[in-house]
Amino acid sequence: MTEIIMEARDVVHQYPDGTRALNNITLSLEKGKKIAFLGPNGAGKSTLFLHFNGILKPARGKIIFRGREIRYDHSSLTELRKNVGIVFQDPEIQLFSASVYQEISFGPLNMGLSREEVRRRVDRAMEITGVTGLKNKATHYLSYGQKKRVSIADILAMNPQVIIFDEPTSGLDPKLTGQIMELFDGFSREGKTVILSTHDVNAAYSWADHVIVIKDGSVAGEGEPEDIFQDDGLLAAADLDKPWLVDVYRQLRSRGLVAEGCGVPRTREKLFGLIRNI
């Protein structure tokens, strides 16, 4: 049975300079899904994420979490942020403690957990993100990729139900990008709802259960990756490229090298399998 964990209902947000970043945006996010947000720079993705976490408040409209409208008093926001964590695009914004261990333990300590529980959560978060060996290292000496991993461990140690990643693979090489996406798969298998914005259409196509395209502060389209990335009009309107898998598949099919009706593959292995089975 489908369970909606988060909603935006007719949300409007306007910045002090008059820029209208969200324009009556309405959407629902299903619990436990891997959801990718796509769209051009300035489309409103990051602004929407800040509303999900309660950092920004709508000028009009509502944000709903687990069936209840978000309230903006201190205790309500504290509770929300235990359950909805956001990892920012630039890890420098997020990291402020002297050492990696202090950084990752900050959130759990402020949740009032016991020292034993904090230690357990921090150790687990470091193990999952592969930064255990950096435990005592000063955060300002970390590489960019290491900072990315520590910023993810920061949020993971809070054990939220929803984890939001704003451009998580920006600035990473392909190998580290793959490792980060595998981490997200692991979070999903634990039942967490994983939300990310990305300009990497190839990663979004292969990874996501559901894709939402944002343009001019509104939902331009949403659906399963196979449908979204074959909608040429939507991709053109949102200035998005096709994933290479979709392009290659179309070329192979047009030349009769792939049987009709087999469906667009989501991985290179499945594409190669279709070619070998001709």
From TrEMBL:
GO cellular component entries: ATP-binding cassette (ABC) transporter complex
Key words of the record: ATP-binding, Cell membrane, Membrane, Nucleotide-binding, Translocase, Transport
Molecular functions per Gene Ontology: ATP binding; ATP hydrolysis activity; ATPase-coupled transmembrane transporter activity
Domain ABC transporter: 6-241
Membrane topology, from the record: Peripheral membrane protein
One GO BP: cobalt ion transport
Pfam families associated with the record: ABC_tran
Domain of life of the organism encoding this protein: Bacteria
Subcellular location: Cell membrane
Entries under Gene3D superfamilies matching the protein: P-loop containing nucleotide triphosphate hydrolases
SMART domains membership: AAA
NCBIfam families: cbiO
Record's function text: Probably part of an ABC transporter complex. Responsible for energy coupling to the transport system. Part of an ABC transporter complex. Responsible for energy coupling to the transport system.
Family from the record: Belongs to the ABC transporter superfamily.
Protein known as: ABC transporter ATP-binding protein
Organism, scientific name: Desulfocucumis palustris
